[in-house]
Design a protein that fits this description.
The chain is of the alpha/beta class and 218 residues long. It has 9 helices and 6 strands. It is globular. Its cofactor is Mg(2+).
């Protein structure tokens, strides 16, 4: 089947808000009496807010009731929003604008597939809210990555089949989600970390649409 759509994760692909997530989670952990490192934070990439909190609490050997966990997740999000509210088009990663220009020229549909409930806000801040034909975020899914729901819903909203899609991801959980969804997956980052991806490049700046279509073999 020919490729008809490109599906993109947000964090680490279009923008890099990982540092803001890390700063907010670190602040939360510190207030709970322990710390998290940047190395530990790598485990949280592509993971939902609730699941990230569970990993952090386990790291700190804490068990809390659901009501308190919900309050903590809300507090973390408020700190995170304070940081991302300052974002602008200057925060778009290098090569993204050029790559999307090629996507449009190739008449490919686009969807965002992010577990972040703040994805629309970020897209508005960076001026890319109208770039996507479909936006699937944490408000539209019930299962986080590595479950493929965020991408299969994106394909469904675009009216295409999974094997007609290419997913662009920077996280292990996201790569697994794309593969489980039956899609060709481009990993953006380290080949050692994203070994499950069908094609790996450092970033969108290092790819062309023609190259991706050729490598997908579809």
């Amino acid at each position: 089947m020919p490729i008809k759509a490109f599906l993109f994760d947000l964090d680490g692909v279009i923008v890099d808000t990982a540092i803001y997530h890390y700063q907010a989670w670190k602040r939360l952990a510190n207030e709970l009496g322990f710390d998290i490192s940047e190395e530990f934070n790598e485990q949280l990439k592509g993971v939902s807010r609730t699941d990230s909190l569970d990993l952090i609490l386990a790291h700190g050997n804490l068990t809390l009731p659901d009501e308190e966990k919900a309050q903590l997740a809300t507090q973390k999000n408020e700190w995170y929003l304070e940081l991302v509210s300052r974002m602008s088009s200057d925060d778009i990663l290098p090569g993204v604008a050029q790559f999307f220009s090629q996507v449009r020229k190739a008449n490919l549909q686009t969807a965002l597939g992010s577990v972040s409930k703040n994805a629309p806000l970020i897209l508005e801040r960076i001026g890319m809210i109208d770039v996507f034909d479909a936006i699937i975020d944490g408000n539209k899914i019930s299962k986080g990555k590595p479950d493929p729901e965020v991408f299969t819903k994106g394909a469904a909203e675009l009216g295409v089949q999974p094997d007609e899609c290419v997913v662009f991801e920077d996280a292990v959980a996201g790569v697994e989600a794309g593969k489980r969804g039956g899609m060709f997956v481009v990993g953006l980052g380290s080949p050692d970390v994203l070994a499950q991806a069908d094609l790996v490049a450092p970033s969108l700046q290092d790819l062309t649409v023609d190259e991706v279509l050729a490598k997908s073999g579809r």
